[in-house]
Specification:
This protein has 419 residues and is mostly helical. It contains 16 helices and four strands. The strands form two sheets. It has a two-stranded antiparallel sheet. This is Nematode resistance protein-like HSPRO1.
């Protein structure tokens, strides 16, 4: 796997404020030695921001209350409950986000593009949820453990879909009807390879049992967390957008953490196929997080700048890293993904050469060429792990570009106003 040099892209408090200089030792001759480059010491580790910013971040997102909805185990026989529950709750927050955006009273918002972005975001999440459900059904140990039921329809008083999710209601509102119906069709298509469906009002043409969505997701409790602690003194429509965006991000980060913890507990050398499935899911989640962060570019630049001032968020050249690292679980998941490279020697069944020899590279080339037919599962796992690394780096790069692009647009607007 490609080595990660995270601190090269992160601000380091130990770095000297002076620029590095070239210097020549007094005892050495310019003809016999090259000048040494004096670089500040850099550690190959990442850490969360200071406790006060992290606490403010958690308080703003109501993260302690949201995390309580992730943890309860109400179905002891369902091993994937801790993974699918936050995923479904993130999807439900997206439905709430759609309702909020389409109710925005500002005449200068691009409602059509907002609808397209959020529909795409919901479709991304449904695809990953379907992957999790398929992996669960393909595993003999977990097959048939999800809480499902054949919900009656027709003359029965029992509805054939969720009673508390926002999606069925969005499908009846004239502003969101087309978006919601396309999302329902996405549920039908993505869940086609699974033995059950989500029960959100999708056609369910195969007549499959439906997941007990309301019992698992608890939409009413999720929507009780839609307000921020500052709503009484902040009158800014972008406040709801930032709040919902980061709640979605935190929910999916938690899903990634649960998948990585499951892989860590598993003997990876004997369960390659399952590890490959989980790693590809984690890769898709990182790409989803990039998609979520891109939504910030849709926010009105001036209103977003006003919100940053109202929330007392510092604006500096290092804000990309500092604000990103306020999410303690994001930092932890990043470390877990980075540490996957330590599994490479175990997968290749070779010890690392303490002298820095090419043992790992030689073992990898032998696997790719000579042992390809018998070791294809190992190749798939190495590809999946490298996919995680690429997607993770892409997320952090995109995060920086979003903030730089947004702040640049704000500055241009302020210059126009001053002129």
């Amino acid at each position: 796997m490609v080595d990660l040099h995270w601190k090269l892209n992160m601000p380091n408090s130990d770095m000297s404020s002076k620029s590095p200089k070239l210097s020549i030792s007094e005892k050495s001759s310019p003809r016999n030695s090259l000048p040494s480059l004096q670089l500040p010491s850099i550690t190959n580790d990442i850490s969360a921001a200071a406790p006060p910013p992290c606490a403010a971040y958690d308080y703003y997102l109501r993260l302690p209350e949201l995390s309580k909805l992730w943890e309860p185990r109400e179905f002891p026989n369902w091993s994937n409950e801790s993974i699918l529950k936050p995923a479904l709750q993130a999807l439900e927050i997206t439905f709430r986000f759609i309702s909020t955006v389409l109710s925005d009273p500002r005449p200068y918002t691009n409602s059509r593009e907002w609808s397209r972005r959020l529909e795409s975001l919901a479709t991304w999440q449904i695809e990953i949820i379907a992957m999790l459900c398929e992996d669960e059904e393909n595993n003999p140990e977990t097959r048939g453990t999800a809480p499902t039921a054949y919900l009656s329809s027709g003359e029965s008083k029992i509805r054939s879909y969720s009673e508390t999710s926002l999606l069925p209601r969005l499908a009846t509102w004239y502003k969101s009807k087309d978006v919601a119906q396309r999302i329902l069709l996405s549920v039908e298509c993505q869940m086609m390879r699974c033995s059950y469906t989500l029960g959100l009002g999708e056609p369910n043409l195969a007549g499959k049992p439906s997941l007990k969505y309301d019992t698992v997701c608890k939409p009413n409790e999720v929507h009780n967390l839609k307000t921020t602690p500052y709503d009484d003194r902040i009158d800014n429509c972008e406040n709801n957008a930032v709040h919902a965006t980061h709640q979605i991000v935190e929910s999916w980060i938690h899903v990634s953490r649960k998948l990585l913890e499951k892989n860590h507990r598993r003997d990876i050398s004997r369960r390659f196929e399952k590890a490959v499935e989980d790693c590809y899911t984690v890769e898709r989640i990182w790409k989803l997080l990039t998609e979520v962060e891109d939504i910030h570019l849709m926010m009105d630049p001036f209103d977003f700048l006003k919100l940053k001032n109202q929330l007392s968020l510092k604006s500096s050249c290092y804000e990309t890293a500092s604000f990103c690292m306020r999410s303690k679980e994001l930092v932890e998941v990043t470390k877990m993904c980075r540490d996957l490279r330590h599994k490479v020697p175990e997968i290749l069944e070779v010890e690392v050469d303490p002298l820095g020899g090419p043992r790992i590279q030689e073992a990898a080339m032998k696997l790719y060429v000579a042992e390809k037919m018998n070791g294809f599962e190992k190749i798939h796992l190495l590809q999946a792990m490298q996919g995680i690394e690429v997607a993770m780096k892409g997320f952090f790069y995109a995060y920086k570009q979003v903030l730089v692009g947004g702040d640049g647009e704000v500055l241009r607007l302020m210059e126009t106003e001053l002129e």
